[in-house]
Design brief:
InterPro entries: DUF397. The protein is an alpha+beta fold. The chain is 24% helix and 22% strand. It has a three-stranded antiparallel β-sheet.
Length: 72
Amino acid sequence: MRDCPEHLKSLHWFTAQASNGSGACVEVAFLGEGSVAVRDSKDCEARPLVMGEQGWSCFVQSAGTGILAPTR
């Protein structure tokens, strides 16, 4: 289950401009009809997380508030 399906590998993946190469990034690809795929930029071969419009909206809001910040 670890391998990324071929149809998801060939999508147009991008990172936020604010990521500035820090390595702690996610990549996003839009799938259409509001769905997106999200993957770890350091592990592009792993299966991405695919979510609908509402899930993506919650993810972006949570990331913006720092709720999803890594713990140390």
